[in-house]
């Protein structure tokens, strides 16, 4: 099967809804559904978080960041962390764990490096989106964080599939990978039950135009992608113009976002 045939095969599967997730992703999806249950008691939520050591560690780390009003008072246990950040913010951490699971089954070292870069990019975009939502666009910061985490989920799925097609993403001069990623993203987002407003913003991201006065979730993601220090390895071009934010504002946003990005987890895919 040549490269074009492989892209066509993957795109056709996605168009049919034939998307299969790794077992680890399905396990995190079950966790997300449980936490989304309005009848989920805080004790059950804590038990579920503790069942995933990575999630437990990141929950405590995130609760201790300036973005969540730690005020210098550190928490050291999951119960206090969950109570501080709340269920909605916990959902973002579950999404981060789920997205990273796609990279765990990648064996090819080149693709694995791309997946690690893609996670670093996603974490930076998510943290910047949250800060931008607070101070610039005034959209809901928790939604912005979540949207940033999942905005490249189609790319992670494509990388996980490319592991079975050697050389699939090498020297993609015709950008077939970008086109297939868009097709795949739509179906992956549907399968993951991503909320409609987030799905719409992600779908419009590649060709999106920034409003003169940024105020939407799409604007927030466009700005976060523009200012993220690490770009996507999947054909996304880094924008060179300075954009609408002055240096002082951008510095303050990046400072605020830095510990949130770190709390979401480093790039290493265990």
TrEMBL record:
- Source species, domain of life: Bacteria
Query: Which Pfam families does the protein's record reference?
Result: HDOD
Q: Which PROSITE patterns match?
A: HDOD
Can you tell me which residues the record assigns to a coiled coil? none
HDOD domain residues are: 21-208
Q: What name does the UniProt record give this protein?
A: HD-like signal output (HDOD) domain, no enzymatic activity
Source species of the chain: Massilia yuzhufengensis
């Amino acid at each position: 099967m040549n490269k074009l045939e492989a892209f066509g095969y993957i795109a056709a599967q996605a168009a049919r809804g034939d998307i299969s997730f790794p077992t680890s992703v399905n396990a995190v999806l079950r966790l997300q559904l449980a936490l989304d249950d309005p009848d989920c008691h805080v004790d059950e939520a804590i038990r579920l978080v503790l069942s995933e050591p990575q999630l437990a560690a990141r929950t405590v780390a995130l609760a201790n960041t300036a973005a969540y009003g730690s005020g210098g008072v550190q928490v050291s246990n999951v119960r206090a962390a969950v109570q501080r950040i709340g269920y909605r913010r916990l959902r973002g951490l579950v999404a981060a764990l789920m997205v990273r699971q796609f990279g765990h089954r990648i064996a090819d070292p080149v693709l694995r490096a791309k997946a690690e870069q893609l996670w670093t990019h996603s974490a930076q975009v998510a943290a910047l989106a949250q800060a931008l939502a607070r101070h610039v666009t005034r959209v809901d910061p928790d939604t912005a964080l979540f949207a940033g985490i999942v905005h490249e989920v189609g790319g992670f799925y494509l990388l996980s599939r490319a592991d079975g097609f050697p050389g699939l993403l090498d020297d993609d001069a015709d950008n077939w990978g970008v086109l297939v990623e868009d097709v795949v993203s739509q179906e992956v987002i549907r399968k993951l039950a991503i909320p409609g407003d987030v799905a719409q913003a992600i779908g419009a991201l590649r060709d999106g135009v920034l409003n003169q006065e940024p105020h939407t979730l799409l604007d927030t993601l466009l700005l976060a992608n523009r200012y993220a220090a690490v770009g996507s390895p999947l054909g996304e071009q880094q924008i060179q113009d300075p954009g609408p934010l002055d240096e002082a504002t951008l510095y303050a946003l990046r400072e605020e976002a830095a510990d949130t990005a770190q709390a979401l987890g480093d790039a290493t895919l265990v």
